[in-house]
Q: What sequence folds into this?
């Protein structure tokens, strides 16, 4: 056993897969300790907040300020409210209202703003200009007005009589240390369509999905193993019968069967565990077939015959004389079953046939909701891409482990 | 010999496959539409058209035979066009001047002299009469909606009189419904109705299911092509409405085309790509299309809520389920615990006023309806949501406690377990149901979400005896001349209780005799103060009894336009008074006459 393990851990592929998988598992254990709480809690009101660090504006205005005179602050500010595209658009407006732009330098911002002041009139609708463009110029004008409004923002509070009382002035050179702001929330992967913290949800979902994969893998391997052992060892009518069933299941595409079963048990019954079991029930066939074929080659070995002659029971022969010889294969098959179980859950959920949605997050459900909310078309990559990456990493690591094991145990592949 | 047969067979196969290839090409060639003459839609038609029969049923023909913010006036026209912006009826087939007699038992109007059918014959009183009569005879939408309110339609030549049904006291049953008839009933040609009648031997079911391929229409467009990929209408250049007494010109686009998209996402992608001009679909964070993506897309208003909200998608409590029917506290607790701000921010991405902006009642957010009840009188009863502690207190007070310590409350010793249901794929509704379920979790009432396919959902929720769904979504009426009365009747009226295949209202089967009596009084009340009292009383009952709770405000049709090809679509500030009704519904159709090509 020790020797086997040593052999296994000599395989670089296995070790690579193992390290990735353990890293994922460790994240699952450690991250919730750093960032505890319900992963399904909706912290954001609104959909798809971008990844980044969020500073409470409310607290920031109350935090002590330092004055920093940064040389490029003004330019940055200007650049963020007046892009090159905006300048091109301004020129477009000037052309539309037939202003003289022969000696206009678009780099001369002051001159541009001056001309804008002179020529922009929200009530003018240049001929042929579409509404979307007119609306765009209105927004641009508002942004430019803000730019001109000076270096000070005044914070006012409502007094007792309802009138506004100035409480603070904020200068363009005032800076706040993020450490002195009471509330700073880091959302490395932003929020999803329900305003949930995607990273927190992802970690929890990965856990659920791995559990689903494990249950599916165990169910599929148990069924496949039992039927394969029986069919292979007992043979005769039982073999024919089991293979008949297995062939039927092989011929019907597993995923179609999965969809049909998931659909018919109805969403109300579909918890994560039920989905896992259903996946297991539809993916045992090839384990069964290959176990059977291996058992057939084993059952006429001398030690098996000796056991038979000694009058050992069927169960004992199967468990002690046959199973150990195919154990390595079964472990490898199990790993692949886990991997495909996770993928199946993701596929099912993507079709809206996954576990019911209010209870636990799963990787597939995260993708399903991201898709329902068109995250893929509105550019909210953080809602689905990390999920895809996680699924890929899990199945990659599991497959890598499987390949490593194969190299160790498969005589034809052994160096 | 065998070889020869094989050769022959092979040759036959080649020939036949070539033949199919050619015919497929021809078919495709038929519907290549010049982009500059075609206005493309999305979000109306899902699946192939069943029929073109305006007096039939189940046509699945959203471009020709459907209503949104008013009747879709493209192919079959109504007497009047409804404008949701000003609540006025504008004459279409009829002249503007309809008139009631003194006791509101009869309404008279005249048809436009110019109004003609596509076969060139005049549209006369006989057509209106026949449209109503056949409706009653075969119980189609017109018959079942207006039969209970209209005694008869009579008239001669171009003059038509609609006689109201009278109740025992001699008063008209509901004059408001007669106004609905004017704007929601497409008029069909009497001669064509006779043809169909004969063809079907007078059998009502056969008439309702007639495909209507030979139909005679009055509108500016007619059928051109329809399969499971797209539906195309083509302009009828002989349209009567180009007469000076109506529009004075033809609508601008020659073709109206609607590609049948698989889902909202596909339609949205097409809108972004400029393949769709007018999009009647909910688009989350629609402002990002222009703010971030810089696309030439706009909505009716530049700022949230971007459109005109006319209805409130509502969660209905199923009164067939004892624990719901017997516990007003449970209903109210769930309703006040729901986080509506999140629903509006998430499900509607802010495209709805909040319940703090427009406090909940029986009214939609338009000024006209809001003025119809006394806000101060019901202020104590209104809730803005997310009141988990209040909800828990209500449940505790009502004795719905968690006695076995499993975290869920029980009623009569049994765990309260409800489901929250809406059709699968309706993402904004699904998000709402998720939030209702979350509210349940917060107050210790197990609510699980369930998303069946739309077909099975429809079959169950319209069944008056169903107990499968506990909380489920549907929208009451949006805006017609008879609203808010119709909507109030849908919330609490007894008319719809026990009706099989109930698409009309009161989907929770809520019975309240007091409310019903008040509802019955409204149509006959003309005194404004009295009317306001009645609506205020009804609002009180509704907010106390909570037979259902609205989740958000919502436009009846969405209206986002891409100006890559066409421009001059209606907008909130353009002073034209054209509603955001997709350029097709009610008075919104006026937009088609003003469109311009870009550049």
A:
């Amino acid at each position: 056993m020790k020797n086997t393990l040593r052999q296994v851990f000599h395989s670089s592929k296995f070790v690579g897969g193992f390290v990735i998988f353990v890293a994922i598992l460790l994240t699952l254990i450690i991250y919730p300790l750093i960032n505890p709480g319900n992963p399904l809690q909706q912290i954001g009101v609104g959909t798809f907040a971008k990844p980044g660090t969020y500073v409470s504006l409310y607290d920031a205005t109350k935090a002590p300020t330092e004055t920093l005179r940064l040389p490029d602050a003004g330019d940055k500010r200007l650049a963020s409210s007046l892009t090159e595209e905006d300048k091109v658009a301004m020129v477009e407006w000037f052309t539309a209202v037939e202003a003289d732009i022969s000696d206009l330098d678009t780099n001369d911002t002051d001159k541009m703003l001056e001309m804008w002041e002179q020529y922009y009139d929200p009530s003018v609708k240049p001929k042929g200009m579409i509404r979307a463009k007119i609306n765009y110029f209105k927004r641009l004008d508002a942004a430019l007005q803000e730019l001109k409004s000076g270096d000070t923002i005044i914070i006012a509070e409502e007094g007792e009589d309802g009138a506004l009382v100035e409480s603070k002035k904020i200068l363009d050179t005032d800076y706040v240390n993020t450490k002195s702001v009471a509330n700073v929330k880091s959302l490395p992967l932003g929020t999803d369509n329900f305003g949930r913290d995607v990273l927190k949800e992802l970690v929890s979902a990965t856990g659920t999905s791995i559990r689903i994969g494990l249950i599916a893998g165990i169910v599929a391997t148990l069924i496949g193993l039992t039927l394969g052992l029986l069919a292979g060892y007992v043979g005769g009518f039982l073999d024919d019968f089991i293979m008949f069933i297995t062939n039927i299941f092989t011929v019907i595409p597993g995923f179609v069967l999965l969809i049909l079963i998931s659909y018919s048990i109805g969403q109300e019954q579909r918890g994560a565990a039920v989905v896992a079991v259903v996946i297991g029930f539809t993916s045992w066939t090839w384990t069964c077939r290959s176990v059977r074929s291996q058992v057939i080659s084993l059952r006429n070995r001398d030690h098996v015959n000796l056991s038979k002659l000694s009058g050992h029971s069927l169960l004992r022969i199967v468990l002690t004389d046959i199973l150990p010889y195919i154990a390595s294969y079964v472990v490898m098959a199990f790993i692949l079953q886990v991997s495909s179980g996770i993928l199946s859950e993701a596929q099912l959920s993507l079709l809206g046939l996954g576990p019911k949605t209010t209870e636990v997050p799963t990787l597939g459900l995260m993708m399903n909701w991201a898709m329902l909310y068109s995250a893929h078309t509105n550019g909210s990559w953080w809602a689905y891409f990390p999920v895809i990456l996680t699924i890929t990493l899990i199945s990659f690591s599991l497959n890598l482990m499987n390949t490593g094991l194969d190299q160790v145990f498969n005589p034809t592949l052994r160096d | 010999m065998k070889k020869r047969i094989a050769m022959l067979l092979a040759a036959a196969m080649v020939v036949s496959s070539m033949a199919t290839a050619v015919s497929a090409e021809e078919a495709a060639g038929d519907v290549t539409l010049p982009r500059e003459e075609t206005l493309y839609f999305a979000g109306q038609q899902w699946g192939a058209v069943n029929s073109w029969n305006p007096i039939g049923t189940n046509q699945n023909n959203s471009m020709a035979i459907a209503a949104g913010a008013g009747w879709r006036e493209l192919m079959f026209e109504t007497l009047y066009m409804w404008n949701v912006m000003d609540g006025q009826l504008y004459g279409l087939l009829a002249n503007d001047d309809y008139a009631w007699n003194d006791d509101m038992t009869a309404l008279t109007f005249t048809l436009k002299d110019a109004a003609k059918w596509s076969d060139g014959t005049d549209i006369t009183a006989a057509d209106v009469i026949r449209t109503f009569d056949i409706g009653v005879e075969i119980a189609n939408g017109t018959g079942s909606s207006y039969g209970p309110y209209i005694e008869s339609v009579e008239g001669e030549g171009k003059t038509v009189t609609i006689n109201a049904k009278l109740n025992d006291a001699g008063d008209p049953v509901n004059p408001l419904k007669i106004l609905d008839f004017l704007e929601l009933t497409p008029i069909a040609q009497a001669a064509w109705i006779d043809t169909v009648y004969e063809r079907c031997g007078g059998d009502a079911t056969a008439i309702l299911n007639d495909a209507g391929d030979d139909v005679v229409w009055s509108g500016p467009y007619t059928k051109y092509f329809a399969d499971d990929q797209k539906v195309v209408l083509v302009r009828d250049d002989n349209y009567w409405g180009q007469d000076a007494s109506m529009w004075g010109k033809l609508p601008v686009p020659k073709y109206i085309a609607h590609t049948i998209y698989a889902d909202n996402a596909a339609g949205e992608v097409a809108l972004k790509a400029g393949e769709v001009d007018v999009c009647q679909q909910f688009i989350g964070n629609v402002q990002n299309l222009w703010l971030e993506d810089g696309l030439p897309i706009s909505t009716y208003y530049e700022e949230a809520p971007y459109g005109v909200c006319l209805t409130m998608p509502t969660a209905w409590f199923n009164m067939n389920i004892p624990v719901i029917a017997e516990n007003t506290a449970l209903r109210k607790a769930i309703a006040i615990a729901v986080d509506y701000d999140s629903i509006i921010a998430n499900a509607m991405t802010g495209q709805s006023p909040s319940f703090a902006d427009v406090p909940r009642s029986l009214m939609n957010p338009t000024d006209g309806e809001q003025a119809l009840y006394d806000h101060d009188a019901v202020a104590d009863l209104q809730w803005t949501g997310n009141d988990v502690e209040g909800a828990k207190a209500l449940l505790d007070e009502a004795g719905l406690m968690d006695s076995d310590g499993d975290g869920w409350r029980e009623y009569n010793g049994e765990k309260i377990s409800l489901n929250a249901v809406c059709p699968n794929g309706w993402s904004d509704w699904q998000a709402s149901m998720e939030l209702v379920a979350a509210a349940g979790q917060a107050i210790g009432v197990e609510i699980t979400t369930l998303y069946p396919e739309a077909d099975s959902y429809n079959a169950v929720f319209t069944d008056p005896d169903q107990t499968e769904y506990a909380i489920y979504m549907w929208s009451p009426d949006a805006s017609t001349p008879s609203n808010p009365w119709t909507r109030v009747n849908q919330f609490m009226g007894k008319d719809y209780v026990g009706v099989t295949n109930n698409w009309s209202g009161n989907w929770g089967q809520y019975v309240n005799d007091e409310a019903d009596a008040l509802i019955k009084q409204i149509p006959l009340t003309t005194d404004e103060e009295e009317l306001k009292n009645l609506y205020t009383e009804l609002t009180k009952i509704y907010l106390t009894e909570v037979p259902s709770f609205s989740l958000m405000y919502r436009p009846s049709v969405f209206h986002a336009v891409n100006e890559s090809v066409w421009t001059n679509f209606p907008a909130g500030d353009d002073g034209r008074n054209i509603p955001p009704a997709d350029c097709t519904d009610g008075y919104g159709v006026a937009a088609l006459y003003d469109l311009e090509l870009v550049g």
The mean pLDDT of chain A is 86.
